Amino acid sequence: MRRGKxxxxxxxxxxxxxDAALRKVELFRSLAERVTSHxxxxxxxxxxxxxxxxxxxxxxxEAEEQLKQLCAEYSDVVSEITAVLAALENRExxxxxxxxxxxxxxxxxxxxxxxxxxxxxxxxxxxxxDELEKMIN
Length: 137
Prior knowledge:
The chain contains 5 helices and no strands. It is mainly alpha-helical. Helix 1 packs antiparallel against helix 2 and helix 3 crosses helix 5. The longest helix has 35 residues.
């Protein structure tokens, strides 16, 4: 894979990691809500793990902290990418790469918006990535 494209795809990879962390937080939040403590002599659960509620809450707190760290990393990655894109000479290239790699618009959508062919848009994107690679090398 080309270096420029790898550089731009870091944001997408971070988004995937954040999505996984969000699912983890949802899972542990659900576990913490389902596990109840023992009140008096009423048996609430047949589990032998008497600290299940504490464990679920601790796992939830750890998952939320991990999510917080990932969000901070994502913010840094996006800031770095936008700074590099802003340094491109051609503003159209900057906008194109931002739309494709940060806003997740397809090249077909952009071609329709710009009233050009898909082929032209793919060529423009390749040229823009080439320019980006020259900058980051």
